[in-house]
């Protein structure tokens, strides 16, 4: 259970400098729409969860609100900022970079902002990466494109070398935009910064199309990626309905969490089956997927199956899952395996079938953010700048139940966000598809 201590945010020191934004904050109070900096946001949101702790309200676990402070830690005129993007692509990376640069320069008056190229390797001299000066002019229209203007990478780098680069460039604030691995890397940087007695704030903006960062409503780019995925589900459905025994099979990204598969399915409401890593399924047997699918195709003439890449890995034989440069598992292709097994099963039962396999893969994450995600990215960037200028460190900024909050990095990587097989989302998927609760 998350405790009060888990939610404590680290700061570099007292805020003694008047914020250039202070005037705008005078009339603010805690309402449904804002939380003042002196207030806290309760972690639990049901009576049973909060009541179960048996604590007075002021001792209940609570989060520090995000947003501007009246006084800040860093002197903007003397502050130098670094930005890095790491891990896989995600719609909105450029929006976040743009938002950070514009907020820092226009509202705080920070004049020295650099981007490190290609993830954490951009700090390490042997890669020979250049450093990019980021000005409002440079970033103004970068949100029109997907990807990241800074480039990104996977693969471990020595945090000592990262901090060497921060020292060489006199960086006071480092913004890291990335997923769980990136946040772990940032925690190593914070440790080395502390060991060297430096005052560098490290603030993260969590990025993942998989939506697997816990304790937050939704990661930026997720909505765009899942909207993009619906196009493949629609195409699969059209193909399936247009051929005798048509079966549209769509494989979507989602290594450990099936959020994209679930939401894209709900958005399109065309799929008959959704398979995700969190819910194991039997393939064979009377109550297995293949037999259910055969009956469905015979009854309705067609079917659509959506599968997340991490689902059903136990069926991929003879292949040890590989690892990428960061140590993340590289799964076998469950889509191809399903296609083969579906064809074999229906052929064996003399059922005509036409399987159309879609693997949109990188296409769903390399697009520019949609307007909702763009607005979200901008607000996350603002929150990250406010947090860093106020000397917060080893935190990510995020929206939780519609409030912007600071979440300590150790908590953000303490577990993964999963689709709960007993939760509301999976229930909605079962209602939408009509698939059995379990294939067993
Ligand atoms: N456990 C870890 N400790 C320190 N650094 C890490 C760790 N895991 C990953 N990193 C570093 O963080 C960077 C990005 O990690 P990774 O490739 O896992 O992507 P990610 O941030 O998790 O994003 P994605 O959602 O795309 O997986 C890499 O440079 C990697 O070396
Ligand atoms: O091929 P890459 O770039 O390593 O990324 C693939 C992985 O990245 C993710 O999109 C997460 O960022 C996963 O869904 C996917 O397995
Ligand atoms: Mg990751």
UniProtKB/TrEMBL annotation:
Signal sequence region: none
Q: What is its main location?
A: cytoplasm
Q: What is its EC number?
A: 2.7.1.11
Q: Where in or outside the cell is it found?
A: Cytoplasm
Which controlled-vocabulary keywords does the entry list?
ATP-binding, Cytoplasm, Glycolysis, Kinase, Magnesium, Metal-binding, Nucleotide-binding, Transferase
Q: Which residues bind ATP?
A: 88, 154-155, 179-182
Gene Ontology terms for molecular function: 6-phosphofructokinase activity; ATP binding; metal ion binding
- Kindly identify the residues recorded as the active site: 210
Annotated InterPro entries: ATP_PFK, PFKA, Phosphofructokinase_dom, PKF_sf, PyroP-dep_PFK_TP0108
Domain named Phosphofructokinase: residues: 80-387
Q: Example GO biological process term?
A: fructose 6-phosphate metabolic process
User: What cellular-component terms does GO give this entry?
Assistant: cytoplasm
- The record lists Mg(2+) as bound by 180
Q: Which reaction does it catalyse?
A: beta-D-fructose 6-phosphate + ATP = beta-D-fructose 1,6-bisphosphate + ADP + H(+)
Q: Name the Pfam families for this protein.
A: PFK
Q: Which pathway does it serve? A: Carbohydrate degradation; glycolysis; D-glyceraldehyde 3-phosphate and glycerone phosphate from D-glucose: step 3/4
Point out the annotated site residues (description: Important for substrate specificity): 181
Cofactors that this protein relies on: Mg(2+)
Q: Tell me which family the UniProt entry assigns to this protein.
A: Belongs to the phosphofructokinase type A (PFKA) family. PPi-dependent PFK group II subfamily. Atypical ATP-dependent clade 'X' sub-subfamily.
Give the NCBIfam families listed for this entry: PRK06830.1
Assembly and interaction partners: Homodimer.
Output the HAMAP family linked to this UniProt entry. Answer: Phosphofructokinase_II_X
- Functional summary from the UniProt entry: Catalyzes the phosphorylation of D-fructose 6-phosphate to fructose 1,6-bisphosphate by ATP, the first committing step of glycolysis.
Put simply, this protein is called ATP-dependent 6-phosphofructokinase
Q: Give the gene symbol.
A: pfkA
